[in-house]
Amino acid sequence: MNEDYDVVIAGAGPAGGQCARDLAARGYDVVVLETESEAEFPKQSNKSTAGTFPSMMASFGVPDDVVQHYTDSVVLESPSDYYVQDQPGAVLDFAAFKRYLVEDSRADGAEYRFDARATAPIVEGGEVVGVTYNGDEEVYGEIVVDATGPAAPLAKKLGVSNLERENHAIGVEYELEGVDVDHPGFADLTDAMMLRLDHEIAPGGYSWIFHTGEDTAKVGVCYIQNDSHRKYAKSDFAIDDYLTHWMETDPRFEGAERIEGRHHRGSAHIQLPGTLYTDRFMAVGDTVPTVDPLWGEGINKCMQSGRAAAAAADSCLKHADVPPTAENLEVYDTLWHRDVAPNVRSRLLMTQLLYLAPNERYDKLMADLNRLDDETLAKANDGNKRAITKLLDLGDLPLLARFAGQRLRS
Ligand SMILES: Cc1cc2nc3c(=O)[nH]c(=O)nc-3n(C[C@H](O)[C@H](O)[C@H](O)COP(=O)(O)OP(=O)(O)OC[C@H]3O[C@@H](n4cnc5c(N)ncnc54)[C@H](O)[C@@H]3O)c2cc1C
User: I want to staple 175 with a disulfide (CB 3.0 to 4.6 A). Which of 191, 215, 262, 312 is the partner?
Assistant: First the structure.
């Protein structure tokens, strides 16, 4: 077995898989270490609802075969109101999608080692030269990429990742059948991805129903254990209890049942990234983290970061006299902040403000969204401060004061 590669990638998720695809397509020797077994892949890491948009499908050439259901609107819901935005989307079969990334990069020559749990970087003379996996096995490369998601074993050991416990968001989802997607009194969720702000269901977070055709849907809950969560949480409730409670109390689930074996759970950190790279090393995807803080869109963002890392690696490896030192890999950091998550700071502030708001404010938010024009909303979504202030009013002063107080304390 070859033990010396151009690039060693740990983790075959959207970020690692896309990085491998781009590098293999450029003719580099790439190996991907994946902790799960190939026969079951992905099992534990089959964690995502995998709602995405045509821009992602087109930029990364993702085939229709991995789409579970096409959607044509995004719905935001509060306890007693909703807002509908026409927007085409696709809910992927996340497992099929992950397997596609493996097969497609393999076709261009990428190697995969399954049952290979990356444990530590190999450092010689102060430089990362490879990865130790499964305790005592080693593989060497000119550049190492940590794409293991929130596990981040290599980035943590190199002091690159600063993932913080208090920023850890958790999510769980069941696939259901027998869902009434067009129930009186609610928005019509036929061919829709719906996100619901309601502390009764997801204290300090949000819940969702993504239609997957006929009477089936992906239904889930996620939250971060923030002040809002502590304020609204029910005693002795774990995350699955919130999802069960929702299923028991929402009339849309009255005749619904779980589809056997179809449940997903996982986590991500909702925070600003720290350092993204060092000599001969880059961290991509949710190792950074890269997921969009507001609505958890991670697939597109993480693939973009994998692509940025591949471009940075290519910019060094194609020239014999440009070693992949931190200085020469800085382009990855530039691409990440410029193209992958240009508005991360304002989107994070919007997220923190949103989850701090009480349920009544969510109802008013829906009314505001229905009142404002599409252009202002698109700008607010991009983190434009003037557009965001149009969504605020005098009644928000106590909320903003609490927010400011919280920021001063942190
Ligand atoms: C419940 C839930 C719902 C979500 N819904 C959506 C959605 O609808 N749309 C969207 O765009 N995003 C969604 N996301 C976010 C999205 O799934 C993530 O942001 C994305 O999967 C992160 O990609 P990644 O490649 O960085 O990491 P991961 O997907 O975490 O992949 C990491 C890979 O590394 C492997 N690995 C871990 N440790 C090691 C190790 N030590 N050695 C080797 N391999 C290792 C894992 O097995 C896995 O295959 C959701 C996330 C969750 C948890």
Answer: 262
